[in-house]
Amino acid sequence: MTRRAAAIVALMMLGACRQGGGSAGTAQDRFAGLDGEILKWRSDIIATDPLCKSQVADQKCTSFEVACKAERTVTPQERAKGITAHVVTAMSWNGFDPKLKQPQAGSRTVQFTKSASGWTRADHAPVNLSTCADS
């Protein structure tokens, strides 16, 4: 699968995995820009993950999939600081382990946080990939 096709599939998966109700009004505004941030995260994984370092065609990272996305509660203290949303997102992909010289699955979980200045991303502990619930 080409990178462009993989990116399109990832975007379609993002829409299918969206949790937390409809897309009208403030819910849509609250998550505006998140899909673009997830694509940036994917690019960062390709650039930095050890499983994605190989330049050999059949050893590059492929099959990126957003396994789950789930909104987390914003506390009143966080809201007072301007935070409007937390979204935990888990992504998986297939890569190549150069030490073991074999294909290997990779995954990561992050929490995106939105404030007036935009989205930020921080590592998050692994979650249940079916529900995005904390393990």
Write the layout of secondary structure elements.
Layout: H1 3-17, H2 25-30, H3 34-48, E1 62-72, H4 76-80, E2 85-97, E3 102-115, E4 118-123
Antiparallel strand pairs: 1-2, 2-3, 3-4
Number of spatially distinct domains = 1
Pairing-aware structural class of the strands and helices? alpha+beta
In terms of DSSP E residues, the strand content is 25-35%
Q: Which series of helices and strands comes N to C? A: HHHEHEEE
Order of adjacent strands in the largest pleated sheet: 1-2-3-4
- What is the 3D form? elongated
Describe the protein in words.
Helix content is 30%, strand content 33%. The chain has a four-stranded antiparallel beta sheet with strand order 1-2-3-4. It is elongated. By secondary structure, it is an alpha+beta fold. It has one domain. It contains four helices and four strands; from the N terminus they run αααβαβββ. It has helices at 3-17, 25-30, 34-48, 76-80, and strands at residues 62-72, 85-97, 102-115, 118-123.
